[in-house]
Amino acid sequence: MADIAILEVNGKRLEFPVIKGAENELAIDIKTLRAASGGVVTIDPGYKNTGSCTSAITFLNGEEGILRYRGYSIEELADKADFLEVAYLLIFGELPTAAQLAKFDADIKAEAHVDEDVKKILDGFPKTAHPMGVLSSLTSALIAFNPDSVNVNSEEDMYNAIVKIMGKFPVLTAWAHRKKMGLPLDYGDDSLGYVENFMKMMFNKPNKEYKANSVINNSIDKLLILHADHEQNCSTSTVRIVGSSHAGLYASISAGISALWGPLHGGANQAVIEMLEDIKADGGDTKKYMAKAKDKQDPFRLMGFGHRVYKNFDPRAKIIKVAADDVLGALGVEDPILEIAKGLEQEALSDSYFVDRKLYPNVDFYSGIIYRALGIPTEMFTPMFALGRLPGWIAQWREMRLQKEPIGRPRQIYTGENLRSFKDVSKR
Ligand code: CMC
């Protein structure tokens, strides 16, 4: 393929370089388009064809169902690594040595507390508040308590901001849950590993000794790894674009949490369970819901199906489906909605509507079933996704700052009124 793309616009023949990625992906570099064409821009709602950056963090091939973090396959990482190692890998580019991992762990633990006054903010929320809203607000509030984390002028400043948020975020996530449950808030136990400590902060009761369950903790570790990065998805693009104004890491992450909350993105894991529950309550008739999903007059979509990039099985969904069977078996949980989910999947995989549009189960289709079996309440599914995605957001923010990317500021094509004169209210 030529390394130049030619475009004729406004009577001018323009040439643009074609750049090639490490896995031979091609992109037309249109950085000079507007200047060279006399003001012409491209339009691409939803950025379906637009690369917003170059990135060395995550490789994803949607046609072949490949996902790799820093060159390591998601299958191998989910099998052999732990979440903190994967976080380090994503953020800093290489798997840590034992000494690097120990330092990262210790630095995070040194920051794994939040100011007591944050509790007052949490107090102001009603118990009915969705934990994603609470988490986004508390993450943003961290800026007020750590103002020096905003201006990062060196790698060291960045590192300090990173270990702070890695330490404090699990506390805020667990607090969002405990507030809802009416449980007292605590700061965890720094003798424990990252995931074990988080699970203790979530589930310990004031009147009962907490006992860790290794099946549960290992599954959570694996789920967090599977969610840890996914290149330029909606929330990550949000983090990069907010960060590009130099608003700071916590403001960027808070915005990313809000983006993740939506049911078309991370909020799908909650929406899937609610959908499966509805189908069960409605008699378990999966065919009826398949018909609704295909009916263009009906707003219903099969939640947990389809993906902007994967046009083949989402590799994360493959791993989670097997894990769901294993975890439910190991915990002795029988969940009728697992059967409904499997039934829907079977029907969709042989239905021409889904086959033609290449709609396969995505990461969220089975993750909720595992979270439920592990005792995580439905409204906490998306916060769990956020906890997993945190290292990815951090890695992408750090890369964006180190690459000195310009402020994100798309163009538009204006379709509103042309110039008109103001009419006094009495004449309107
Ligand atoms: N159920 C029924 N039809 C669907 C679905 C679905 N879940 N997803 C896509 N379609 C149809 C859509 O109506 C369209 O049909 P047509 O070509 O006839 O107009 C076609 O498939 C292409 O869909 P699209 O909306 O143009 O595709 P997109 O890339 O803009 O959207 C998506 C991707 C993930 C938002 C969408 O598939 C969806 O809404 N899925 C359900 C929500 C979900 O599970 N989201 C989680 C995504 S994975 C994890 C994450 O991002 O956090």
Essential attributes:
binds carboxymethyl coenzyme *A, 428 residues, 7% strand, three-stranded antiparallel beta sheet, globular, mainly alpha
Q: Give the number of helices.
A: 18
Q: What Rg do the Cα atoms give? A: 23 Å
Bound molecules: carboxymethyl coenzyme *A
Question: Helices and strands, in N-to-C order?
Answer: EEEHEEEHHHHHHHHHHHHHHHHH
The percentage helix is 40-55%
Shape annotation: globular
What percentage of amino acids are in beta strands?
5-15%
Ranges where pLDDT stays below 50 over 5 or more residues in a row are none
Q: What is the CA–CA distance across the termini? A: 59 Å
DSSP summary, beta strand count? 6
Average residue pLDDT: 95
Strand order of the largest sheet: 1-2-3
Helix/sheet category? mainly alpha
What would you say this structure looks like, in words?
This protein has 428 residues and is mostly helical. Helices cover 52% and strands 7% of the residues. A 3-stranded antiparallel beta sheet has the order 1-2-3. α3 packs parallel to α18. Carboxymethyl coenzyme *A is lined by residues 46, 233, 264-266, 268, 293, 301-308, 357, 359, 362-364.
Could you give a quick summary of the protein structure above?
52% of the residues lie in helices and 7% in strands. It has 428 residues and is mostly helical. The mean pLDDT is 95.
